[in-house]
Design goal:
The longest helix is centred in the last third of the chain and has 18 residues. It is built from seven helices and five strands, in the order H-E-E-E-H-E-H-H-E-H-H-H. The protein starts with 12 loop residues before the first helix and ends in a 7-residue tail after the last helix. A three-stranded parallel β-sheet has the order 3-4-5. A two-stranded antiparallel sheet has the order 1-2. It is of the alpha/beta class and 238 residues long.
């Protein structure tokens, strides 16, 4: 299986829609076997089997930064990305492509503040704001009956012991707390009580308060694999 990494540094959902025509293979018509295609990448033999939609961290950057996308527009952009592959009238219709959402990760507010202070600018991200974008991702996934990996809640559960920044109920329909408990490594132990770290424990999973570090990426990988196995266990995903 070939894995094509089509991630672009700093992109938000506006940028994703702008480059979608260069990423998804175009459907040129229908045959008895389904959509026929031309390809933006000639080495790609067919439409992707799995598409991971991992957006929100940049969209949630605070205004007036250029990366900021208002929450209602972000929500609509996610719908549009799904329909590019799901709408039979779309030029990129691909009914056999599996789609999975990933929420933006939690933000380490104190880490972001520290980086901003050392580099001479105002903090540009807040975990409470990013949570709203993570919730929007989960809402769109539910509306389209698509699986979602909730890395925001996974990190919060591990760092804060299953408590949220703004809401006493941060659990999702797929019971993220149990999901994390059964899919984390031995060194991923939920923090008991208040963390003694100046960065509240987020440094265990975040490099700078925003980007995942090695442990954060390993956690995300395990959650993605687990969700794939749970969602498509009856299918051949090899």
């Amino acid at each position: 299986m070939d894995v094509l990494n089509r991630g672009f540094s700093g992109y938000n959902t506006r940028d994703a829609l702008r480059v979608a025509s260069h990423v998804f293979p175009r459907s040129t018509g229908m045959s008895q076997k389904g959509p026929e295609r031309s390809f933006a990448f000639p080495e790609t033999p067919k439409a992707p089997r799995l598409c991971l939609l991992f957006f929100g961290a940049n969209d949630a950057r605070l205004a007036p930064y250029a990366q900021h996308v208002p929450l209602d527009e972000f929500y609509e952009n996610l719908h549009t990305l799904v329909m590019l592959l799901r709408d039979p009238n779309s030029d990129y219709y691909s009914p056999d492509t599996r789609i999975m959402f990933i929420t933006p990760p939690a933000i380490g507010d104190r880490m972001v503040e520290d980086v901003a202070r050392r580099n001479g600018y105002e903090p540009d991200r807040k975990n409470a704001v990013t949570k709203l974008y993570a919730d929007a991702v989960k809402k769109v996934a539910k509306e389209h009956d698509l699986p979602v990996v909730d890395i925001w809640t996974a990190i919060e559960d591990l760092v804060r012991g299953s408590t949220s920044v703004d809401s006493p109920d941060c659990k999702t329909e797929n019971n993220v707390a149990g999901f994390v408990e059964s899919n984390t490594a031995e060194h991923d132990v939920p923090t008991e009580g208040a963390s003694t770290s100046p960065f509240e424990g987020y440094e265990k999973y975040l490099l700078d308060g925003l980007h995942l570090n090695r442990s954060g990426n390993e956690l995300l990988f395990r959650l993605i694999v687990s969700e794939i196995e749970k969602t498509w266990t009856s299918e051949n995903t090899a």
